[in-house]
Amino acid sequence: MEDDYDMDDTADDMGEENYERGMRDSDSEDEEHGQSNDKIPDTSSADARKGKDIQGIPWEKLAITRDKYRQTRLDQYKNYENMPNSGEAAAKECKPTAKGGMYYEFRRNTRSVKSTILHFQLRNLVWATSKHDVYLMSHFSVLHWSALSGLDTELMNVQGHVAPREKHPGSLLEGFSGTQVSTLSVKDNLLVAGGFQGELICKVSTAGIGPYEI
């Protein structure tokens, strides 16, 4: 989570207490471990097989073990619920899991690209359109990150002035600036971003990930 946005109005609308909690939960674990995303190297499947933590957390240097930390979090952390007892209801429908079971195959964890989410209740700000293509919000930029090349490409920046290329009934011809993106969708060469003030930005591409045109 970053504070690059003007968050005052949004925080009031969504609840001061929940907003503050979202900010606390953002990068708190990195701060606890005394590391920044820029300084943590990628973790490969080969590293994981040698015993390295897949999140890059140096447990051997900490005063608490991973198991103890996890148990403490389970005991003390309380999920926010819009609907009372929704967690218990969902748990009844979940299949029980066994520790040590194979539920996924780890390949790589990278910290070279960092998503920034304005509020902890927001969803749909990270999209994967394939096994190797990820789209995400990073500050005011919509980025595409390739797991194959390890490179990120900025597809759209909404910090400055954004205006439509074509005239359509109901569109703001003067455009808008400093859009606070609250939702994102990418599919079939169409990228759509929605803002807190009702902004809707659509970009299309005829070449996969870009270039996009508004």
From TrEMBL:
Positions of the UniProt region annotated as Disordered: 1-52
Superkingdom per UniProt: Eukaryota
Biased composition (Basic and acidic residues): 33-52
Skewed-composition ranges (Acidic residues): 1-17
The name this protein goes by in its record: Uncharacterized protein
